[in-house]
Structures are given as structure tokens and as C-alpha cells.
Request: fold
Amino acid sequence: MQLRFFAKSLSWPALTLAVWAMTASAAPVPHNPVWPRPVVTPRPATTAGVQQPVVSLDGVWKVSVAPPAEFWSNAVDPSSWQEIRIPSHAVPQGVIQRPGGQFAFKKRVMIPAEFAGKRILLQFDGVSGEGKAWVNGVHLRDHYGAFTTWDCDITEHVTPGKEAWITVAATNANDGLSGYNNGGILRSVRLMALPQDYVFRFNAETDLDRQYRDAVLKVWVGMRFHQAAQGRVQLTLRDPAGRAVPLKPSSVELSRQAPEAIVEVPVAAPLKWDAEHPNLYTLEAAVTEGGAVRQTVVKRIGFRKVERLGKRLLVNGKEVKLRGVCRKDIYPLTGRSVPLDLMEEDVRLFRLANVNYVRTSHYPTNQEFLEACDRLGMYVESENSISFARGAVASNPEFTARYLNQLAEMIEKDRSHPSIIIWSLGNESNWGTNVLKSAQYARAEDPSRLLKFSWSHLVPPEHYAEVQDLHSFHYPSTRRDLAAGGPVLGANLEPNRERGTDPTDYPVLHDEWAHVPVYITADLRRDPGIRNFWGHSIKLFWERTFPTLGALGGAIWGAVDNSSVAPEDMLVVSRNDWGIIDGWRREKPEYWLTKKAYSPVRIEDRPLPNPGKGELQIPIRNWFDHTNLKEITVEWRVGPESGKMKGPDVEPHRMGLLRLPARLWKDGEVLNLKFFRMGDLLVDEYNLPINPPPPPDPPVPQGPAPEIREQADRIVVQGRGFELSFSRETGLMTSGVYQGTRMIESGPYLNLVGQPLGPWVLKSMRAALEGPEAVVYLTGSYGAVEVRFQVRVDGSGLITTRYTLDAIPPLTRQVIDEGYRRDVGGYWETGVAYVLTSEVDRLAWRRKGLWSAYPEDHIGRNAGVARREGRGGQQRYGEKPSWPWAEDEKEFILFGRNDAGGRGTMDFRSTKENIFWASAILRGSEKRLQAVSDGKDAVRMEVEPAAEGRGRVRFIINNEYNVPNLAWGNWVKDPIVLKPGYTNQVRMRFTERD
Reply:
């Protein structure tokens, strides 16, 4: 790809010669032949004579959803209208407008007296759908698009020192172009005071020479003249340390006849910007007159170059792989409007999760978010607000302006941000001439960045190179060739999603992949542990992407949960809590799994051989793009010993050795490793055992055998410290007492998730002694499912429950073989359950997890104790939680705004896979019923509903566990297929310690 400057008419060779000969001068501004270039006035940093040149109008406004005639007139008193805080989505504040209806907003503001003699602009960052603005009853401007900035000059219509009425109309205009043009005033509103002759355009672009050493800084500046005939803009540049960088030329002369110009400035060996080294320079433009500064405008810029070379994406000449998330604007209390103080927090959270790429799905983001990406280091794909535009709109000339205006405003507002490396023309929309014109506009306006369209398979081959530099493909299967393209026009997309191998000459970007579990609501109600199961998917995606030429990366759908509070249980956007963080910005289980999968420091997460007294050498891969591992700090700990050192000298995308100091290494020790970058940013953590012993074998029955007492209504099995009673009527255990305390209430039950079971009907029952065990034999059925149980109990209280399915009908649910909602078939869970007393209040376990290191509150940690009750038990709908996600007991999205909870914490009721043991512990004691396994079984706790008081706990031990309908390309196990004759067993025992 030949990257160009702002216009095709300025060729790189000619420009280079001019710059490096230091004969550069201001060049005229090229005309965009496709569409008029908009104006988005930059906010002033200073305006002479004004202490506060930018005044926020955010706060309380008045709103009406049924405004009277001529509501924009100052004669209309809005005092009876509803109050609303701006910016915000309207619905969370109880303001409901029908689709296509119009909001009317009014606010009386004081125009600062110090604005006298200045140009006064009213600027909006986001008015949903079709917006209209008035001041003091005077119509100013109409605007379409909810997520781009626009302004109005109100100088002639207001008086400084006096109040003015500002009126805004916003229409819920989901007109086929986007599903997000609703909700009112979604972003900030401000007043700006500017000199009479002021900067109305200020953009910067950088390019690097062939050695990626020296740079050209290209500055585009324009002035609006109301008094003078000409003006001068002085340019200054400071490096990241605040030192002045000499510029030549350092000023731009402008006039009424030539109000805009581009100046090209050579900069020798600047520090480069990339997502791992976000070196920012400060560029200032000052309007001067007679030696006095009338206005300053400031940009933070980065020197970097973006290229496509064959199937690779390069930043500053280095290949980059994109570890991404898709981010929508969302906050529970304000809907599709995010408080500005959360912009940097979002970027920090993503960066801590080893994310280096954010797709702004499906509209441009705020300036504040982009500034945080520039400052903290994050690549951005900025997407035009065209989403799900189906039907004829893509080629309808009546919609051309809406396609092009939004795109042009996005580019104009954000083109100086180094973080943006990709412009997206829209999301999952039809191909048409409006898309083609959008591509042509972007190519002419800013060819320094890559261009894409999210449904690449719809772009005709003759337009492919013109429209995009990347091949976009949504929701590939983990089994797919991740460097393969999509089908040619008219071919079937679905088989390609699963088995695609189509060649392409372009890097393939899966800018939606690894969809976080959300749509399988019944399953998530049953088992929050599905979120931990998802971790296999993102691990596979990234491990298969990084080493594959042409596989550029992907973006998890999604970054943040997508729901908000609303009156009458209406949710402003959806019931789709699909984020790796929740709407309150708490880390969900998927967050750590993303961090681990995306980690650029790669070590085999498995036991290490013992080197004896020598140096411990560990193979290590560097999956950073611009960072040598010697920039990383390594902290290690083994028992009481610890140390800190620099990482090894390993270049990006290379392999080397991490050498730990010589010491006497001992079998069974665990080496904890932590890797930090940029001081205190944890990149990854590992707990690596040194030649550990094998896990203990599951216990085997031991004698002496317990006693069997046959009674008229029950069979009693009694051993050392325990007694079990089985009903002759049902065959089920009615009591399991350990050291005088009742622990088991009933069981065994067949646990078979995936097929409805009828009520249990006992057919036969008998008991016998067999060696060291008492055995209770049960036969019966759950409707058409016929089962035989053997409950085998040894003298110490080891209970082995064997079950055999003598008859089981085939599954009848529909199985989807292809597409986003692919279902592999089979069962979710197969095992045995026992109902325990309501006094169970903890679950402890040890397991073999996907990773060796987890946070202490992660539901998938390898060992821990989960409490039944957490701090989330008293949470109210719409209340911001002050506790970790794992302690939540209510799920308002899954169970409604009146959810009473009582099911236990997320941690307590999440499946724990691959256990060695898992113990249900009684409140106020250490007595426990412990499931024991060889590392293949899973345990899940389920609190039964109770009319009053605490519900009993169902202790479920599963031999088979899957999420067959996780879908959206995610990894699942092979189907759990059960046929007559299937048999398996689970083990558990009474104990007071683990």
C-alpha cells in the first residue's frame, strides 16, 4: 500500500525533496473531489482577554417529549417540563420517546461577560439522530448524526453578561442507517470564546523516512477572518520531556483570500509513537497580532507511520498484531453516554488486559477517549456511524449525504490522533455506491491510514483495492484458517465461517470474534461458570493468530456490558451483558482470561524440571511488537526467597531464555513469576511447579465395612462417625449425618442437563455388603430415562455413586451446524446430585485450571473458598456495587429488576471443572462433604428456592461438562452423546479438612 498525505496531488518524492532541502513553504489546501470537507472548530486552549474560553453547558436541562408549537421560542416557558441531566441517554432518566419522535431540550445559560468582543460558538459533541439548534428563538443549524461534533456561531444572537435560551431538538431517527441514532443529547455541549479572527482548522500528520528515523510533520491550519485581512499562526513543538523542538518553517501566513494552508516541517529523529511506547509531542498553534498572542490551540501528536506490506500491518516498520476488543458507549445510569471520567479508566483497564486495539463499534468515540488512547498507548479503529444498513439505502442517493457527512466529520475531528490507525466505513451493512463514495472520500482525504469495510465479502472484486486495505471477517470458528478470506460475491458465507480456506492477499482482521457468552440466558442463569469456560476460545484464537502470516488479529465482542437502568424494567439498549468488564467497570471472569490469552510474554504454563543447584532456564517467547523483553521487569519468588531483575534480551516476535539465579531448587516448590512493563503494569503471572509429585489417586474403599440395618420404612448404613438413611418408598437417601450433624437431605439424583426428566419413580431397592462396602442398589426411571444406581459406602464414609443409563431417548432439540449460533449438540452436564442442608455456606476446591495464576476472586482459580453469601446480597437495581463481580448475588439482566437473589454468589454457584476435590462446608464449622476426583470431574452448587429462610443446596458432581451452544465461533468440546448402557461414577466423603 502506498501511503500518501492529505491529497493525492502531493506526491511523496517531490515533497521529500522540498522538505529536506529546507525550502518548504505553506502549500495550498487540496480540494476533496468527492465531498465537501467539513469544519469542526478546535477548542481553544487560550483566548486573549478571557480567563475561561471554554464553558461547559453539561448539567441540568429541561426536556419535553411532546413539545408545544414553536417550542424554540423564548416565549415558551419550559418550567413545567421534566428535568434531565445532559449528557445522557434519555431513557435511564425516565424520559421515553417513541421511535421517530422528537425530544425538545431547553436551557437558560448566562453568556459570560468576558466573552464581550469575541466570537461565540455553541458546540455539540453528539445530538442523536436529526438535531436542530436555536438560540433565543433563532434557528442556527440542522445536523444529522449522533456521534460527531458540530458547532454554530451565535455571536450575533446573544449578549455577553446576559442570559440566553438554548433550544435543541433531537429526533429518534433510526432510519435504516444505524440503530444508535436515538436517545437525545448523548455527549457534551459547550460555549467557546474565540478572537474575531480565529483558528477553525488545526490538524497534524506525520510521516517517517525509509529508515523510520527522521520525520516530516505536516500541519494543516485555517483561520476564519471577521476583522483583519490576514493573520499569522506561530507553531511550536515540545518533546515528551517538554523541551522545545526547533521548527523551520515555524509560522504560517493566512489571509481572507487564502485562509488555509499546509506547512511541512522536517523533524530529526523524533521519539516514535506506538502502542507500547506512546511518546507524545505537544504541538501548539498561536494566532499572533502585533507580537501579541490572540489565541492558542494545542494538539498532542505522535510520530508514527502506518503501512500495509503484503499480508502484514506495519507501524514504524515493525509488524503489528492486534489484540482487540469492540467498545460501545455504555454506562448503566446514562445509557449510550459515558461519563467523561470513565474514558481514561476504560483505556487503562483495556491496557491492563494486554489489549492493544479498540474498535469503536459502531460509531466514532469521544475526543477524551482518543486522548487517553494516545497517552496510554492503544491502537484504534474508528468506525463511521453506519451500522446494519440493509436494503436499498447503500445505493440510494437520498442517503449519500448521511453516509458522507458523518464520515467526513469523523475524519476531520479525529485525524490528528496517532492512536487511530484504521478508518472503518461501517458495520455489517450492504454494499452500494454510497459505500464506494465513502471509500473514495477517505482515500482522498487521509490515505495515511488503513481503510476497511466490515463485510469485506460483499465488496465487488473490481473495487476491493479501492475500498479496503484489510479483509474483515466476523466470528470465525476456532477451527478456521484465520488468515483465510471470505467467499467471493454471491458465495455461501456460513460454511466459510467454519471451514474457510479462501486465499487472500490482504491481512485478515476478525474485528468481531470470541463473542462473550450472553445469548444463552437459560444456561447463564444456571451456571455463571460458562464465562470461565469461554477462556479456552480466546486462548485458541490468539495462539493460532500470532504465528500465522496474514492473520492480523481480532476484537472480542465485547468490551463492556451493554445494558442500563430504565423505568418499568425497560432497558435502554438491550439485555446483552457481553463485556469482559461490566457496565460499572468491574472486571468479570472474562477479563483475566483475556489478559492471559493476549499476554505478549509467553511461557509454557506447565511444571518445570528440577535443575538441582544450577541456573533455572525457561524458554520464553516475546509476542510484543515494539518491545524488547529487556525493557520488562521480572519478579520471582520461591517460598521465602525472591528477587527482581531485567528481562532477557529478546527482540519482538522472537524466542529466547529466561535465566533464574542459581540456587538449590527443590522438588515440589512453586516458582511465581510476574512480568511488568512501564513500571507497574502487570503483563502476566505464572505459578510453575518444580518437578511436582503427581496428584494423589482418588481414595479407594477401605474396611471395615459399615453396618446395614434393614427397617420397615428405611435402610440405614452406619459407619465410623456417620449414618445414612434410605427411604424404602423412594429409594433416596433422606438423611446423611456426620458426627451428629445432618448434612445430606436427599439423593442420589441423575443430573442430566439437556433433556427434561420426569419425576423419579423407584422400581426396586436392595442392600448388601460387598467387601469393605455397603451397597444400596436402586433401579428406577425419570420418565423415559431408566437408571440404575449403586450407592457404595465404605466404613470411613467414602460414598461412591455409580449410575447406568439402561434407556435414554435421543435428544430432540434442533442442532445448528453452521453460523453465528452454531450448536454441536449433546448434553451440557452429566452426573449425580445430592441435596445438602441449607447450612452449607462455603465451597472449597483444588483443580487444574486453564492457567496456573488467577486473581484471588476469580471464579476459575485453581484453589479457593467461595462463600454462599457475599456483599452483593442487598444490592438494589441501579445501585453501583462496591464489591467484586464474584460476590454478586443478583442478576437484573437475567432475572429482572426485582430479582431477590438468594441463589448464592457467582463464585459459589459457578462450575469448578477438572477438580481433584471440592468440598461443601457447613456454616460455623469445618464439617464438609467432599467430592474427590482424578482431575476430570466438575462440581456445581445450586441453591434450591425456599418459601422462607435459606434454601437447601444441591451438590452436583458432573462427569461430563460442555457448553454445546456457546456458538459465535467459540470453542466447545465434542458433543456429550449418551446411549443406553452409558455408565459412570462420582465419589464423595465426609471429612473435616481438605
Observations:
- The CA atoms of residues 228 and 767 lie 105 Å apart.
- The chain has 13 helices and 55 strands.
- Confidence is low (pLDDT under 50) at residues 1-24.
- Residues 400-414 form the longest helix (15 residues).
